[in-house]
Amino acid sequence: MQEKLKREIITTADGSTTIHLPALNEQYHSKHGAINEAKHVFIKEGLHTILDTDDFEILHILEIGFGTGLNALITYLEGEKRNQNICYVGVEAYPVVFDEVKLMNYPVILNASNKEIVFDKMHQSVWEIPNSISSNFELTKRKQFFTDIDDENTFNLIYFDAFGARVQPELWTVEIFSKMYDALKTKGVLVTYSAKGSVRRAMQEVGFEVERLPGPPGKREMLRATKS
Ligand SMILES: C[S@@+](CC[C@H](N)C(=O)[O-])C[C@H]1O[C@@H](n2cnc3c(N)ncnc32)[C@H](O)[C@@H]1O
Q1: Which residue among 48, 128, 129, 166 has the highest number of C-beta atoms inside a 10 angstrom radius?
Q2: pTM of this prediction?
């Protein structure tokens, strides 16, 4: 269904691009800045928080909605800076096509033009199997519906980056957060840009400890959920 919708490339407030779906009036990232949002929600409040509190020989990350690969690219760059081994799994039911990837300006805006080759490699890598992107970054892209996720006790960190609850309310439910809880290891963390009360309560119902944190530009709050 989603793959039949018209798609437009737009530029967000920090100069980075995203994909806009006019029929849903929804985009892959915040209009207030795709890179600003990714860096704040997933990197600062997720990746940095977890790496600053614990040591991991390999950090296992699950992304809900691989989409354009922006979060994977920034995570790769951060992993390089910290010399951190990362196994990254991106789940996505409707992969972007390579022509769209080439319209995304993330390597340039991130001052990492020399990493465009890495970004391309991520998108050209084979689905369903682990791909070595560099000596310390392994990427597995899974073409899968979120409702079919059944990992257990596998991940340290989840980037929960589904479309908003206005568009896909069925993805912000006890059923899905229960899957996320099971997929995390003990002390594992899930971060998301949403701060809706109903989302927070669904997370708490499945056992998460939930914090409300300051949000990225244009959003007052976001959520971080920990499996204790
Ligand atoms: C907000 S966008 C993700 C943005 C992505 N993290 C990025 O940086 O580009 C949500 C993603 O979820 C995917 N998606 C939507 N519904 C899905 C479902 N039921 N199962 C799996 N993927 C889905 C969309 O195709 C889209 O790529």
Answers
A1: 48
A2: 0.98
